[in-house]
Amino acid sequence: MSNESSRAVQYGGGREALLEATIRVVARAGLRKVTNRVVAEEAGVTHGLVSHHFGNRDNLIAEALRYVLERSLDSSTLESGTGSIDDFARTLVEMATSDADGQAFQYELILESRRRPELRPLVAGLYETYRDATRRELARIGLADVPGLDHAVFATLDGLVFQELADPDPARMQSALDALHDLLRAATASTNATASASRR
Description:
By secondary structure, the protein is mostly helical. The protein has two domains: about 1-55, Homeodomain-like (Arc Repressor Mutant, subunit A, Orthogonal Bundle); about 75-195, no CATH class. About 70% of the residues lie in helices and about 0% in strands. It has nine helices and no strands. The protein has helices spanning about 15-30, 35-45, 50-55, 55-75, 90-100, 100-115, 120-140, 150-165, 170-200. The protein is elongated and about 70 Å long.
């Protein structure tokens, strides 16, 4: 049992404790190790609470994915809402290092979906949510009409987070993110120049 799970769970906090425990178990041991008993032990609650809140293992995993996705979107500033290139994914390095378990959980689910086709809709939804957030922020920046850019930019960010998990080097990741910001600035300038020329 982890140090975190040895703390008493406050009344009403069981659901969140189970979601956090699921993320830790998957990050540490893989998706195949998730059982009601293992997750309950990690959370410091009775295993009946897993069934009470989620019904079954698949629902628990789906809810844990939604939970970690929301947390990732909030902490990464993938969609800052400002339309500023400097704000776009500004805290990605911090998110990747401070929530490594949350990121590992997502990658474990992605890899497991290759072996378990029933997980593919969850993974497709995960990626679509991230691409949608990227697409909206790129539109605010002024890059709405560049086909495939949202996918390319998100794939770059996704790869940076994956590499940070496998071979941590926050300075290298920040340097890559700065380079991406420079590329987006150049793309914005080019788009603006093309738009100005077409109005003449």
